[in-house]
Write a structure and sequence with these properties.
13 strands, Porin, mainly beta
């Protein structure tokens, strides 16, 4: 993960140095953008043995991706014509799917968060931005195979976020992001079970100036 972050930062500054301009918005512009899209959750960390509520047994598991929904709104202020700061709030369905290594049975770990992404946006071309920042999240719901497990999940989550976006001339914006969980989400963690919540999102939004 550290190598990925270093590459992202290096790419940002190298590209900004070569082409430091933003065609869409001038310095001092303030925009608001509602957005909606899909999320893909995955597990970070380690999970060797997990309790399956449906069967009331502990099983060896492997994690898989889980698809979901994301929707929210984001405000952005252009510090320079090529650099902006943004903050938003969104509802995201995260978590992952688990598979019993022996039987092949599958069930979901559903983690719903209210996330607050705070990002620096580097406009490196006409409507194109690279972004990096942090994303605190607050747990709304936690269910495992339909069973409420919120008591066993921490109430907050912290992630490092990065991504890219492209804004069309009409204000429609496509945005891809990844959020890498930095904190374990399960309260009773041990060497065999300490996991984090990672998430990638693809959204479409409409950006307008105030």
């Amino acid at each position: 993960m550290k190598k990925i972050l270093v590459m992202v930062v290096a790419t940002i500054f190298a590209t900004v140095s070569a082409n430091a301009q933003n065609i869409r918005h001038d310095k001092g512009t303030f925009t608001v953008q509602p957005m909606i899209g899909m999320s893909v959750g995955s597990m970070g960390g380690k999970m060797e043995v997990r309790f399956n509520p449906a069967k009331q047994t502990s099983v060896q598991v492997e994690d898989q991706l889980r698809g979901g929904f994301i929707g929210g709104v984001e405000a952005e202020y252009y510090i320079l014509d090529w650099l902006s700061a943004s903050a938003g709030v969104n509802y995201a369905q995260q978590g992952w799917r688990m598979k019993d290594k022996v039987s092949g049975d599958k069930w979901d770990m559903n983690l719903d968060y209210l996330n607050i992404p705070v990002l620096a946006n580097f406009y490196v071309g006409k409507g194109f931005a690279l972004k990096a920042g942090v994303q605190p999240g607050f747990l709304l719901n936690a269910k495992e195979d339909g069973y409420d497990v919120k008591k066993g999940i921490k109430s907050s989550n912290f992630s490092i976020a990065y991504g890219l976006s492209y804004e069309f001339k009409n204000g429609i914006t496509l945005d891809w992001r990844a959020a890498i969980g930095m904190t374990t989400v399960n309260k009773n963690s041990d060497e065999n079970n300490k996991f984090r919540s990672n998430c990638a999102t693809l959204t479409v939004g409409y950006k307008f100036s105030l």
